[in-house]
């Protein structure tokens, strides 16, 4: 099957600054792809290049098999939803939804049918006669999404559409966007810096840094097999704990860090011939064992609780262990206090290894 979007050797320079560098990306038909990264990584820039809002410095962009590298945004067959709602304040919701269709010269009956259909999908039918000033933030964002949907585009681009909303409303609209994709089955590219949005919405996530894609994979793959230390640290909250040490031991391979020694037998190394040398060992807070389970672990560490973050379903604790600061997840009903002593356990099967120099996954 031909990809819905294909990007070949895409580069974008602002003077001497390289913002995107020889970037390649293919997005499948009906796929929900999330571009994830911290501010300045190039994710919104890449989205704007696909939309035609920025002139690229090199490379090609194909949408539906058609080269659109130098086509106008209106000719690319896309619908775009911005971070700001960008609604016309003097128009009703119906007027905002129909404005682009009127400019395109569509018949009145067709315009009304599209607006009515979109309003039904987004459940904003009672809002069609209201102006933006009379809408809540969530209602405005639905109207902004509706303005993109009425175009009947094959590809929808979302540029951090939920970042201006409060946490509860973000969670609600996140669910609605996922249901919308399941219903429409259009190709969607979604930009965010919020890893929860990325993990819950995406079929695949492209994690970006410095204008490059560091890893492109399913949320499950990125969480369980991060390609490098940066991805491992970026995904997860609190982020992964890291131990600085060495891998060695010949037949009985192990990771050592001062008096910490963790057996690594049976591991599936990326390069079986070269797992030795300085390395980082990573373990997620939720994979550090506590309570009775820790006393049965192959590796045990005595620690002291420094800080407690109760979240209801879980409780996270920052602990000091052998002059290292670690985060661990406890049961949500636990009531630990700063100063409490706690036994931690590490299961060798739940850890990650990264080369100390390249920071790539071992």
TrEMBL record:
<feature type="domain" description="ABC transporter">
    <location>
        <begin position="5"/>
        <end position="235"/>
    </location>
</feature>
<dbReference type="Pfam" id="PF17912">
    <property type="entry name" value="OB_MalK"/>
</dbReference>
<dbReference type="GO" id="GO:0140359">
    <property type="term" value="F:ABC-type transporter activity"/>
</dbReference>
<dbReference type="InterPro" id="IPR008995">
    <property type="entry name" value="Mo/tungstate-bd_C_term_dom"/>
</dbReference>
<keyword id="KW-0547">Nucleotide-binding</keyword>
<dbReference type="InterPro" id="IPR027417">
    <property type="entry name" value="P-loop_NTPase"/>
</dbReference>
<protein>
    <submittedName>
        <fullName>ABC transporter ATP-binding protein</fullName>
    </submittedName>
</protein>
<dbReference type="InterPro" id="IPR012340">
    <property type="entry name" value="NA-bd_OB-fold"/>
</dbReference>
<dbReference type="GO" id="GO:0016887">
    <property type="term" value="F:ATP hydrolysis activity"/>
</dbReference>
<dbReference type="GO" id="GO:0008643">
    <property type="term" value="P:carbohydrate transport"/>
</dbReference>
<dbReference type="Pfam" id="PF03459">
    <property type="entry name" value="TOBE"/>
</dbReference>
<dbReference type="InterPro" id="IPR003439">
    <property type="entry name" value="ABC_transporter-like_ATP-bd"/>
</dbReference>
<dbReference type="InterPro" id="IPR047641">
    <property type="entry name" value="ABC_transpr_MalK/UgpC-like"/>
</dbReference>
<dbReference type="Pfam" id="PF00005">
    <property type="entry name" value="ABC_tran"/>
</dbReference>
<dbReference type="InterPro" id="IPR003593">
    <property type="entry name" value="AAA+_ATPase"/>
</dbReference>
<keyword id="KW-0813">Transport</keyword>
<dbReference type="GO" id="GO:0055052">
    <property type="term" value="C:ATP-binding cassette (ABC) transporter complex, substrate-binding subunit-containing"/>
</dbReference>
<dbReference type="InterPro" id="IPR040582">
    <property type="entry name" value="OB_MalK-like"/>
</dbReference>
<dbReference type="GO" id="GO:0005524">
    <property type="term" value="F:ATP binding"/>
</dbReference>
<dbReference type="InterPro" id="IPR015855">
    <property type="entry name" value="ABC_transpr_MalK-like"/>
</dbReference>
<keyword id="KW-0067">ATP-binding</keyword>
<dbReference type="InterPro" id="IPR017871">
    <property type="entry name" value="ABC_transporter-like_CS"/>
</dbReference>
<dbReference type="InterPro" id="IPR005116">
    <property type="entry name" value="Transp-assoc_OB_typ1"/>
</dbReference>
<comment type="similarity">
    <text>Belongs to the ABC transporter superfamily.</text>
</comment>
